[in-house]
């Protein structure tokens, strides 16, 4: 049964609350559930979601923080783990999410200032983390073993929005079933991608595109601005192309006329038919190492 959660008045007095990173929070004791009031919520149990489609935990209000306190949410590859649409100031942290199509999905045109911090996402079929909205912060997450979705490319972390910060994340194992494999993808301007570790990217053969970090705008010739600094990108491989598709591979990918500055990145171990590119159209700020 789907439960609807509201912020309890008693929580302010410390009655019936769970404690995690936040000193006072409303406990979530079973899933699936929907949050409809602003506040701080803490997952109090591990949960196994059996829905074929849908969402384990939906955030339907603005100014909500979900702290899983290290608890695990497990679910099938056609559902989403934690999801919010068109809300402001949604934060998801300290969650262990296994399975699902997308582990954490915060999206919609009305989304702003989302934060995704210190989560472990494993075995998502399409994307580990997907966030939309200006001013997003994606920090300190671990995304492992993403892939298996048949009709689209696969990404460990993807973000759409301006003034985005993606910092200190680990993405390991992005294996696309048919199309592109991207470690971290940013669509927007004035964004920074800093101190992330990306490894083990393998594309499918229908569109053999492998990109460690992609920073793009709204169109192919958009003058994207931002920085990519201090990241490590290791071991990418494009599948042998099917039906004559060209191979596109790069440690860092940007659009033509890009104003993104790349500095102090280490990029090694790519094995692709055409050798790929190291910095793409990124402006070389120095200190980059590529083999």
Automatic annotation (TrEMBL):
Gene3D superfamilies documented for this protein: Single-stranded right-handed beta-helix, Pectin lyase-like
Family annotation (SMART domains): PbH1
Signal peptide: 1-20
Pfam families reported for this sequence: Beta_helix
Keywords: Signal
Domain spans labelled Right handed beta helix: 42-186
Descriptive protein name: Right-handed parallel beta-helix repeat-containing protein
